[in-house]
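Section: Multi-chain targets

For targets with more than one molecule, the full set of components is provided together so that the structure can be written out for the assembly as a whole rather than chain by chain. Components appear in the order listed by the source. The example entry contains two components.
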Amino acid sequence: MRPAADGPGLPDADDPGLPDAEDPGLPAGGGSGLPETAAGELVTVMTGFARTLRAAGVPADHERTQNLLRALSCLDASRPGDVYWAGRLTLCSSADDLPRYDRVFRAYFGGLRAGRARPGAVTLIRYASLAGESRDRGEGGEESPALAAGASAAEVLRHRDVAAMSAAELAEAHRMLALLRTVRERRESRRFRPARRGRLDPRRTIREALRRGGETARLRYREHRTKPRRVVLVVDVSGSMTPYADTLLRLAHAVVRSEPRATEVFSAGTRLTRLTAELRHRDPQAAMTAVSRAIPDWSGGTRLGEEIRRLLALGDARGATVVIASDGWERGDVSLLGAEMARLSRTAHRVIWVNPHKGHEGYQPLTGGMRAALPYVDDFVAGHSLAAFEELAGLLAGVRERPRRGRRLP
Amino acid sequence: MLRRTNTASDLQSPGRLAELLGREAYLADEGLATAAFLALRMGRPLFLEGEAGVGKTELARTLAAVLDAPLIRLQCYEGLDGSQVLYDWDFARQLLHLKAAEASGVTDAARLEGEVYDRRFLIARPLLRAVETQPCVLLIDEIDRADVEFEAILLEVLSDFAISIPELGTVRAPTPPVVVLTSNRTREVHDALKRRCLYHWLEHPSFEREVAILMRRLPECSAVLAEQVAGAARRLREADLVKPPGIAETLDWTEALLTLGARELDPGLAAATLGALLKHREDHEVVLANGFPGAPRG
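Its structure, encoded as tokens over all components, is:
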């Protein structure tokens, strides 16, 4: 096959049937192939195809391209169907790659010009302006020019609502937040480690016996290792959460940095976006820049019910401590939120709900979403100040004041 | 008469492989047939991802039947370690041997060690068995359930199909076994592992293929029933369910309907057998409230 050649009748860009091999349009176009393609030309064409795929965001690296050429040598490179499948099998490595692969394949071999990967929907760094909005509403005298670095100032700051902080205070709070290192509750792993008591460790017992010339004098023992319990954080980034979302994401960064391998972070708005990779940056600022690029739905509405459903489908919540940071302003179906929270509470180890408004005096959980979710929440905590975040960190470390909820049926 | 075995070199094309799979009642589409064909030809593991019940595990079973090779299955779960997947020593017998040696007065540590770490005290676990068995099909099922440490072990074995046992030496497979890895995608498997494999995303079968599969697998199923079941399954997959039914579930369901003597799908029977198709109470509620999609509409 030749790139951008006379259209071999491949389905057009809107045809969803391409990945389905039973599509009659795809394998039938044998006439358009290049039966006498020289090996060299095939390499050039396929390398170009892989390069185009990379530009579109599919990780079709050199090794994978080599695999494609090897695969094609087992197949018929003049058949579009064979080229399609050989490429898809060797160059893609995730279901997310498939739509992009189909698009590039059509463009490259179908005579269209391949498009570059679309840049992220949001490149604007939200948190800078976000703090500014709330600062204007702050109490007039709070804009202290010289923020004392003394312990008492820090103590005052700990209990201040982040939505009412000045830019300088917020920067200081974020600096303190970046220093927050959370200890994680541990659970028993299925792996073993040597121990002084516990179960018999036959492997080490034999070794010991051999060392003593075959005399099994000392028995060795082993016990289960422990590993950190996974935490799944879902941060609501919808409009009503604007004053808090940035700080909550910074908290998420601190949690990821403490246990990078046992934490998953998602943003929730109109869709669920996984942010764990973005938050792995050591530098909080770099992480926040990456996060603001990755989130496509800042300041929109919230459809928490659907997002939790998606989260459950992903499987990350199973056995984990799930933290949902939201004010519970549900735009979607409140009864769906209740049903999905019920499922979440059965799947997750523990469900913690962080509501920034809970820290305000006289708060009542009156929003429909909050009322629907509360029966399935183990811990309902505030999330408006550094002190509240420290309380949350304590919960993640397994410090419990209240026992686990009784299982309530709806 | 001995059954003629198919080897990888006998398979001329993906179409031929699809035909052989079809004889074992596995109807593969072009993509899957090409994937399996290339896995055999290139000696690469096949990484199958897709929703539960689309026939990932079944493909490995059928490939084993087509190649007339034993199927070695490794079901993954968290905490799998080397002694469960590679090899282990039979400690009880080793200890007995040491006791016997002690009783007969042998105290030469070097000699004892040589005796204790003998092949006969070695228990081969699935990966070592696969390396030692020629030919074979190795099924590594639901790798997304295992943890990252296990992926590292697997990476080592799948890169050169050799397992080194410090006390005995290296065991190497003369030709790479056929390896099928499956994942339900409950988590993302590490890229390093995926890049050694051919990646195939398995979709639910098309309507026509599902009808064909039902009739091929369940000969007593009428065309009418098969079409009604496949139509219901297709609509259920479009509906917003917790767990849309896979082909495994539609096969179970059809079998349940046939057991109750159904010739055609009727709402009463469908409701009675719904548990074979949908495994979540929430889904039952949705289906029963909205009217069963298999029932004729309009």
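Residues 87-121 of chain B form one domain.
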